User: Fold these one by one.
Assistant:
Number 1:
Amino acid sequence: MRAEIVSVGSELLWGKTIDTNSSYLGRILQECGIELLRKSTVADRLEEIVQALRESVSRADIVITVGGLGPTSDDLTREAISSATGNPLIFKEELAERIREHFRKRGVEMPEVNLKQAYLPEGALAIDNRVGTAPGFILEKESKCIIALPGPPSELIPMVEEVVKPYLEEKNPEEVIIQRTLKVVGKGESWVEEAIQDLMAPQGNPSLAPFAKPAEVHLVITARGKKEIVKKMIEEVETKVRERLGEDIFGVDEEELEGVVGEMLRDRGLTLAVAESCTGGLLGYRITKIPGSSDYFLGGVISYANEVKRDILGVNGEDLRRYGAVSEEVARQMAEGVRKLIRADLGVGITGIAGPTGGTSEKPVGLVYIALATPEETICQRNVFPGDREIVRWRSSQTALDMVRRWLIKHPKE
Amino acid sequence: MRAEIVSVGSELLWGKTIDTNSSYLGRILQECGIELLRKSTVADRLEEIVQALRESVSRADIVITVGGLGPTSDDLTREAISSATGNPLIFKEELAERIREHFRKRGVEMPEVNLKQAYLPEGALAIDNRVGTAPGFILEKESKCIIALPGPPSELIPMVEEVVKPYLEEKNPEEVIIQRTLKVVGKGESWVEEAIQDLMAPQGNPSLAPFAKPAEVHLVITARGKKEIVKKMIEEVETKVRERLGEDIFGVDEEELEGVVGEMLRDRGLTLAVAESCTGGLLGYRITKIPGSSDYFLGGVISYANEVKRDILGVNGEDLRRYGAVSEEVARQMAEGVRKLIRADLGVGITGIAGPTGGTSEKPVGLVYIALATPEETICQRNVFPGDREIVRWRSSQTALDMVRRWLIKHPKE
């Protein structure tokens, strides 16, 4: 079973808005065992949308449109679907009533333009929108199916979860496609590829393919088949990959490094504090993305200026002068200083040159020292990261989290 | 002149990778006065790519393909363009030599598979790739033009800047499309729309359309016409919008709030320090995104735990107990405390409930107090931000920066 997505909106073509809906729908379709083979993005022009729809319907069994269901003259998807299928738009009193109700609840009178949203192509089944005013709909015609959804993710996602996904699962009950992503940190893409060279099968079933991310490598295993067997297919590949990569794999699927490290800290009852120079707060920001991180994260010091390193973290002024702010000595003292200052079990110190300026031949842009102070010892890693300012900062936060992770693996719960 | 983009790559359909290239190319095409009307994303399958290419070529004058130029069996764009146009692939010894050279420089022998990248469709003009091994190319045929570019942005962007953009400008020397984005902060979308209702012209020339971003509203002015007149068309609309919105507009186009505030601080010779609780380092991270921010940003304290607020920032323990960590009193003392501790001219304090848990009926999720301590006074703003944890944190950092900005406007350079 083949599906295509037609995204409507000039702002998507201009790149003013990143189209996260398509990625989301791609995943949902995959979970339903439906192959997504094309995604078209078209400008807000009736003739363009109609043409794209006709082409997609001719190729695919299922066409999902995203956007263009609003009340303004820019919103043309309803008209385009009517025109592409030949099904006239019909006024639905029950939809009009729901839209009026939506405004009543907010104590506002419904603008007349919103009545436009009460029209559906003949034969279409409305999908209720609990968040906004635009109903979606499903239109079946001659063994094909068009599903129209509004653009805002906060409206689209509940409609997909509650109506569209169950509908698609029923359409295609036999075969499913399942993916599992194994996430690797602390090793480069070429190293990872070499380690699993003989297991790679980009086109096989199950398939295994690597994707390089900044300071992570993702290994995606995909299996297609009957529900009962795909899980086993995935597990077999996963076991083999894990044998090769061991603790270089930090998590799977949606897991993030900051969440994995947080769980490990919580599990061991340990607390963490950070001292950040070149990352300027990024590490703390990432750690506190996780709800409940206050259980193990106490806080930190953004020691951007040298005076902050010296006066608040207690870095030795003489060492700052002799070795420079970007040095192993200073990184170690930052980690130890913040650990002591904030009375945490573990302290991290990061100092480096993120660029684009400030590098010398001896201390190039990308040079970052990262230290971890623990109750037993302080360890420090010297890195020269490639990439621009933001990539260097990201890699620094990533490496710091990975140092904590690998230390925690060696110090399991007692 | 019409253009379409064909992006090749299953990972783009799965949503594992966000397609920033298309947005970038959309902007470049627009600057060259070429209308981008469709963007298709196709799986790594030869027949899919060929079909998408044929369709795009039939509709558009210029078709840009992105991706699929690598050396592996997955990379099929070269073959697809050859098949769609009927121009056979020809081996180019000079390209092979360049690719061998690329590997020689890194001290590595060229894998045989890379020779694939030395083939081009007959009649194509190679575009040199200074970063990677995949050359791009331009193929003109029967008044149409196909431009093939590699997927990694670090390879694509230099090729576009150096070859593709000048080529397109020459193709379409008459008409240009220019956009200018005015960025508003501190006011909601509906407020902004109401203020400029009568100036709005989503379909006009020049057009004016609003786009809501988290804690920002972007007003995009677009003008199409001869080079000499479009700039003036944009300026006329901009002047009218600025008359209405004044200092609610913080910047234009690529300007970011953290950069604008940084410039103002630098201009006035003032320094800043931050005390962050619920944002966990986000504000510091954003401020230090700007190269050279060490000129005005000294550092800060991530006071996630109450003990850090009390012992390091000097927040009164009694007040913490009486009013709670999320209170105006604590925000003020955080701002004043960090200003004093770090000896900065300005201090910011942020304390709030980012959620998803921790809210009460009296102090709901989204309640954030933000204080700004200055040499003259401390001001504090109580906010109840809508949205999830990340949106609340983003809005908090945004509002903090805007408070600094508005205070600096009132305190111009002496």
Number 2:
Amino acid sequence: MSAQVRPSRPRQPERPVRQENLRTLNLELVFRHIVAAGGPISRTELATSTGLTRPTITRIAEELLAGQLITEGGPAHNGRAGRPRVGLTLSEKGPAGLGLDIRADGLAACIVDLTGTVRHLAFAPSAGRDAPDVLAGLAHMADAAIDAITAEDLTVVTATLAVPGPVHAGIVQSAPALGWRNVDAGALLRGATRHLDLPITVDNEANLAALGELYASDNTLSSFVYVSGGLGIGAGIVLDGQLMRGARGWSGELGHVTVHPEGEPCPCGSRGCLQTYASLPAILSDEPVPAGTTPDAAITGWAEAGRPATLAALDSAGTALGIALSDMLNILDIDTVLLGGSFSLLASWLTANARAEVQRRVLTATWAPITIRPALLGPDAAVIGAALTSIDQIRQHPTTWLALRPSHSRPTAPA
Amino acid sequence: MSAQVRPSRPRQPERPVRQENLRTLNLELVFRHIVAAGGPISRTELATSTGLTRPTITRIAEELLAGQLITEGGPAHNGRAGRPRVGLTLSEKGPAGLGLDIRADGLAACIVDLTGTVRHLAFAPSAGRDAPDVLAGLAHMADAAIDAITAEDLTVVTATLAVPGPVHAGIVQSAPALGWRNVDAGALLRGATRHLDLPITVDNEANLAALGELYASDNTLSSFVYVSGGLGIGAGIVLDGQLMRGARGWSGELGHVTVHPEGEPCPCGSRGCLQTYASLPAILSDEPVPAGTTPDAAITGWAEAGRPATLAALDSAGTALGIALSDMLNILDIDTVLLGGSFSLLASWLTANARAEVQRRVLTATWAPITIRPALLGPDAAVIGAALTSIDQIRQHPTTWLALRPSHSRPTAPA
């Protein structure tokens, strides 16, 4: 026999840690232990949990304090019974992350600090769907948010823009719900803001919303699917605490999963996609949205008033959602589904039918139950997730913020 | 604003390396570099690539040589032009891995050595589908394989059994194609073999086959879906070189993805599953398989003879496969599909229709092409993957073999 097959070779053979990186690695190790503590932690506890010496901890703590990454708190309750805690905690000043989102009911901007607290959350109606108009509107919101937060001694370090479609190397490949194709959203945004040197990351909104839900659950949720319903439908997949982006970052195109192979045509070119049954335009059918309201608000209002056409559309949307979700869960083996975006507002009309299909169609559902429920952060998951993704860069690599510090006191906007 | 959400905390805070583990870690590091080299590598090259000192490398090489994990080769060509190479390579004696598989055309057993070379591959017809009969048949094959290989100075360290269904904690939860439910396949196998102390791992056959293909591709394939067609249909998902098992190890239930929501009933309790269109029994419809042949051979023979009913069944199987695969690829974002198991033999009749559906239904296919082709290892992927998975345990953690060494020279079978 000679079929030679080679068991897994490490793709990048590991290397031992070298002295020159040790200082950075230890500082980041200590900082991540402070993040993981979720509350005040003493230098002694840090020495125990990291295995580093007390003098090393002391030196690193000084560096983190000077850099506004942590503060030294007085007595504070840790939320449980027992004696109050003192120690080192994440700073509420210093670096901040900006998130921006394009959704069915308008535009949104959010800023979070290092502790993960939302410090700014603003909404505005969108002036149409054309990319330059949408991004000019978001640039205006970003400028206003950065101005507002500077007064609180917070510096926005990086921005993350959520878009409803697959992104590659910063370019929105396709966003059928907005009619976008190959849009350099980061460049349009940067060209319209006053903060020309702000690093901007563009990412899929369902992925960012899934990260928002992961953060918000404080890691009690480790594997789930976040379904974002709106003008289109997308999904973010979290498996074992990690976002599963796929080979090129385009995973989770739930809206284009086939429900009926010979169904209605979809703008994507296929037929019978979930999007043709369960997106907001599909649920509205040809009914115009009354002036001054949003598609979600119109559907919710009609459903609450018992309008038969709306209720029937929601029924078939729920069934179609359940069929497509079953496919997704059979493939991924995940037992929790969070309905987000506009679906978080419509969940009470969608969930029963979706559950019935999932119960019937997911092979493992007969012995392992599946949970379908509204997202924790509701329709704000994507913008909060985008802001948290921005600040998470500093939480993972605090030394990049420390390296920026000389420029920290100068204004972020050109005079 | 006070919605506090906590960015990613490390779930298991890292710890620095301690002295007592250093010896093991360095030995395993060096061994993995020898695995990764894929051919002879000198002590000097190992010192450079690992960053360890030459005396440390020398000491570790002695230990690996004494443990039959590596050999020191004379001049040998590395397959490219230039001067012959000398150096350390993986041993063709010492530890071996056993794989066992239950497939549509019978039972299979395989043994591979550390180099990944198949040293034994055997097939036998299955006496029915009842679990005790099937596992007694496999136990007999395992005993024969271990006896045959002992003469070549190879010791089977661990066995991996491939089963067509989801597995949890060693129990086959459900294998609709065999009519199994909650079967402790490892215990039945162990009870029937003479090698009562052999560690046995039970795993899903599509997952193991996907690993087999990953190994066989020498990591040139990093993200792909392996589709296993047979009595049932399953899939193994490899993303960025890693098997994606899902939250509970039950991912890839492609056979139960819905093709038509109101299609034919499936043994799983749902309707219109891919399995009802494209499994071997579905393609055969009610046509009995002639005595002395297998379902795959019967279908292939009829298709080659141009039998209209068979060709029509293969056409609709290909279309259904394409619809279900499109759902999978929209969700996962993977651009390569390997048709394996019996589908590797039927690929020439299935691929055109499957490709047409994928081209039309996968959102990203219009700008990023998708490849569908037969698996490299054909129907043997699962049994070879199972054997490689067994030996890979030693490749990842060679110290477990070294710890076993005192027992290495005693016979593995009781006298």
Number 3:
Amino acid sequence: MATINQNYLKLPGSYLFSEVARRAAAYAQANPEKRLIKLGIGDATRPLPSVVLKAMHDAVDEMGHLDTFKGYGPEQGYDFLRNAISEHDYHARGVSIAPDEIFVSDGAKSDCGNIGDIFGLNNVVAVCDPVYPVYVDTNAMAGRAGDYSEELGKWSKLYYMPCVAENGFTPAIPNCKVDIIYLCFPNNPTGAVITREQLKPWVDYANENGAVILYDSAYEAFIVDDDIPHTIYEIEGAKTCAIEFRSYSKTAGFTGTRCAYTVVPKELERDGGNLNFLWNRRQCTKFNGVPYIVQKGAAAIYSEQGQKEIKEVIAYYQQNAKVIRSGLTEAGLSVFGGVNSPYVWCKTPGGMDSWSFFDQLLHEANVVTTPGSGFGPSGQGYLRMTAFGDADATKEAVERVKKILQ
Amino acid sequence: MATINQNYLKLPGSYLFSEVARRAAAYAQANPEKRLIKLGIGDATRPLPSVVLKAMHDAVDEMGHLDTFKGYGPEQGYDFLRNAISEHDYHARGVSIAPDEIFVSDGAKSDCGNIGDIFGLNNVVAVCDPVYPVYVDTNAMAGRAGDYSEELGKWSKLYYMPCVAENGFTPAIPNCKVDIIYLCFPNNPTGAVITREQLKPWVDYANENGAVILYDSAYEAFIVDDDIPHTIYEIEGAKTCAIEFRSYSKTAGFTGTRCAYTVVPKELERDGGNLNFLWNRRQCTKFNGVPYIVQKGAAAIYSEQGQKEIKEVIAYYQQNAKVIRSGLTEAGLSVFGGVNSPYVWCKTPGGMDSWSFFDQLLHEANVVTTPGSGFGPSGQGYLRMTAFGDADATKEAVERVKKILQ
């Protein structure tokens, strides 16, 4: 009898965003005259930059001619894109990352999950709390998380690092040995950032303890402050302890176009294995590269015009974040994030629990948000709003929230 | 200290196609005046059908407008594509597969590898010998294959099913209990096919023993004979024991465009788990869907014009296969496959080993092929040629081979 991966059966049933969608749909059905505004999911809404469209049209044309048709590409990505990433995202920031340390992929979600393939099952995994659920779920599926307690909202073998208002949403360095550490800055869901000075001790901890930091930098394009690193490799010593995930999803609106990349430095060795070699082997065996058309679109972002266009879109979302931030503050809420991040994180009023505040905003303001408790137990009493909506709708949503909280 | 997945270190170093490429490049460098013809790798070379190009151009345009822009799509694929697959690839053949049993993905290689995620590590895995290396390597990486013996060219825990001329390249039903069985028909690398009558006992074996068949049907479009099933679900009982992999790579030249799908019937249960539910969970957690643009391109294949165009391309490759088959037969070789398949598999002359014949063809005929031994020990003494090349070049390659073997 074939056996299944029993770890899958340990996963708790309802998924955060399905439950959000279910409640929103139920409300909309019962109240068809109400116009809901969705500030829940972190999904791009602005059109792709024109240079990206142009590059993709050209690439589609290439696929139609015998002499320019492209079959299998390199599993790791085309040189034209790996070189552009190395040059623009790293070298231009004074960081040396070689093209063969860059692996182009179909998404940071895939990479954050699949990276587990190259690690042993006995590693102690540390995650922030609240946290992007993919880090937790993929480790649970692999068997590294132990058992889930509905009561605690926690897995028995994971090491949770609470991120709450009291510590500025910055996790404390573990006071014991952990092996794999997920860090995401600018953070999803809290919108918190980490300065170079704050990140250095993490790199030192990882090097001293042989740990590996999995650094999710998907929201890097939203950074405005000078003391916030755009890449963990700005920190001395990071190349011997960190893997970095980047994505075009939020940088250039690629959520439906699918392109990302992961950096695995060649200096990164653990337990007798070179992680760049292992990840390369994983990708060559279980992945066949990103569509040529999509890679051409991604490469166009690095042109002068591409940079100009993506900055305009980011500025549009940043303005939304500002509107949400200031509106919620005026409404008397304690508000975090939203400065170097598309996410605004706020405390629920009067100690309400997250889902109750979610329901209040849904029913009274007709605004869809995301309850903080869905991201982990320390998210209880918080709520997330995203800046990816339409500017006018965002303003209106904020006005409605202000009105009901007056 | 973080530990790595030690199974990766057990993988033998050199990869078949890298070694083929290395030898071809070395010869080309030493003999710059020679024109090599490559019949080695199974990669499409004909341009994409015009309906696919048109659909992708339209989709790129949609991504450029606010009201038609697409962000995150469903992880399982858009309904327009899942419905088209259900209707055209299954219902039209008298097979009922619901859209929610179909999972659109970026490639059959990814799916064949990732499917292992939902199974226990203790399953006994059966593979044909010779075999597409991805089945073996991904199970080795997961720890299901045991240890590799360089001498035998085999993994200690895999169950090998020899496919040689003596059994018509059709594996024998295991005489012991195995749990997971990879079958690929039309076969890569041998080009062999299986009739409905021959496939039925496999389905019966799997149902009786609680095994799961992983059926790779990537070359289905090449089937011409009426008694060859296009899908394993043509066989009664297959829905309670089989998962099927399909791809647009060879059907429509999508090797560089990346779209495939996997069918997991809802009736398929094992070990207390529903495999459709498990695979859905896997994909939702570790995958974020195929680019909208690519899915629109794939859906266009199902239009009347799309069907006409892909049939022309398939016919072009089928004609190449015929040329290779008849030419090698005239040259006195024992030739197999190439009828319902783009792969031609032949015995080396005079009991030569595969790499020696590969070298002879490279050096004397300047034709690049793939040595059968690279696909497993039972591939020793065979050679694979593919029909995906240019028609004139294929003819010339065959003439050259005939000449040196006269």
Number 4:
Amino acid sequence: MTVHTQQVAIELGDRGYQIAIGDDLFDNPASYATLPGASTALIVSNTTVAPLYVSRLKQALEAGYERILELQLPDGEEFKTWESLQKVFDALLSAGCDRKTVLFALGGGVVGDMTGFAAATYMRGVPFVQVPTTLLAQVDSSVGGKTAINHPLGKNMIGAFYQPRLVVCDLSVLSTLPKREFSSGLAEVIKYGPIADTEFLGWLEVSMDQLLAQAPEALAHAVRRSCEIKAWVVGQDEKETGLRAILNFGHTFGHAIETGMGYGVWLHGEGVGAGMVMAAELSHRLGLVDAAFVKRLTRLIERAGLPTKGPVLDAQDNAGRYLELMRLDKKSEAGEIRFVVIDGPGRAAVRPAPDMLVRQVIDACCA
Amino acid sequence: MTVHTQQVAIELGDRGYQIAIGDDLFDNPASYATLPGASTALIVSNTTVAPLYVSRLKQALEAGYERILELQLPDGEEFKTWESLQKVFDALLSAGCDRKTVLFALGGGVVGDMTGFAAATYMRGVPFVQVPTTLLAQVDSSVGGKTAINHPLGKNMIGAFYQPRLVVCDLSVLSTLPKREFSSGLAEVIKYGPIADTEFLGWLEVSMDQLLAQAPEALAHAVRRSCEIKAWVVGQDEKETGLRAILNFGHTFGHAIETGMGYGVWLHGEGVGAGMVMAAELSHRLGLVDAAFVKRLTRLIERAGLPTKGPVLDAQDNAGRYLELMRLDKKSEAGEIRFVVIDGPGRAAVRPAPDMLVRQVIDACCA
């Protein structure tokens, strides 16, 4: 491929770092030249990614570390648990890894979130690097320092804000991604349009076919622009005391879908796809956007190969079940759910909504 | 009692807070007046402390919170595990606790470390308050933001630096402390002398009998001076990149004793007591202090009711077992153990030592 490597900076003072975006980056030793010295590296991946890429990453790291350890976790959201995390600690401690050991997260969002949380808490913090191998991780989860594991009662409920030292987004690895996973990543790409950049939303409408065909220049633009918007938001509100919550557009409904269906049944981006339709519909019913906007966004989500209707989580009281799950959302306060809504072109806000209105939205948007 | 309430400030910018030291503080609503508003509080204590103090704390908090939840953990270092931590998350999630919920750690070091780690990671961080009920927690573990749980392979291996919003050291609760626990706390008090303040060391020698009798003024001085020294160190090096490691004087050997004997068999302060003798002996054999200093410190530790000899952890190769356990210490780098040694009056340093010398120290200091 011929894409020129680009850098996006996350400005967070002494916790700041670079996102490198381009081709053939992850297996190039030069990509890791700026990392702090250490005797040991641990590559955490999963059983799907490891056979494809782990030996190439290992080779790239050989000049920098005396020892390169490897650990494969099971693949899937349903394994984003304490038990998997414990495997990382066991690997580190049984090999006598010290406080300078660098962890490399080679995989998608699940590997990245768990490796990041392990790095945040092993000996109260060791350095880590994100090497995302899915579109979703490249445009969203690997950037910004949110790390977590799931709890049976709610997604990402236990975690930390802990920034990586570096993110290496190698576009060439996306070619091995199953179509369904690629579409799931597109949900997070699409998200950035309505919340922050109407021009980007227009570009996505024009470029969706090229993106689905993984045309290099289109893919590079989508990843770079997504990372730029995320970097801008995170740079202003690292720990989500305000603005950062807009990145959760579609996620309040989406997390309820993921938790309600059982982790791993719907992919994260699929939940976010249907969730964005619901959040747009709610914005419309709150009088913030017109029906044409909801239609436009729904059409784009559909073209990306994503569901635009939520699943029925409870045959008796579906809306009630959604509400029950959403009350546990991290944005909730004193039992009041706070939704990310669109309140103008490229502009999002966080606000509560009457239960009755939310019920109507759920009834209208589930099938 | 008649002790005037005193405040010690931890200077850490927007993560700074006050330590209040005095009598009848923990059950006084005024002690908590500066905390951020929230609808829910969770008091985490243990099965020993709860019957004594939890209802009084609850009453003091009633004006500030709509809901006050309670959770009792089992008592003892052997329960400082993920399983106990999970109980805190279960309690929070099953009650639908939001991101503003304030956690209160009412108990000793184990309750404080676990509640702090739960606060650091629940929804990626909620506020928490330390209400230490042991001398050890008041002078050391509740101050400075080190939170952790143990791993079967090493003590405090999984945790976070996460500061409380407030520490309330109520001296009157120490009267119910068993003698052995009180002595364990004295180990951490004594520590501050050799590493930072020879005058305090001299005062401790003069005042040990009064301290053991819990004379109010002596106790207040010991707690305040300990907190002042800790605040000074933590204010300079919150995340232990350098100076803060001196607070671990005696702990490299002490943690090996605790892990090697099985958590809970030796109290933390007992391990630190014997560990300080070993660290002083090592300092002497490295030519940094004279034999009289080792004798003086050993005598003080003995008077505090603490062991001055380490246990035999392995009948075949005792020193080898200590070394194996200490190599996992968080200060170790690339397999080299780094010891906190005394290298002058009231001055500590961190440095490696030849295995052979460490073996001699262990052989000389175990019984």
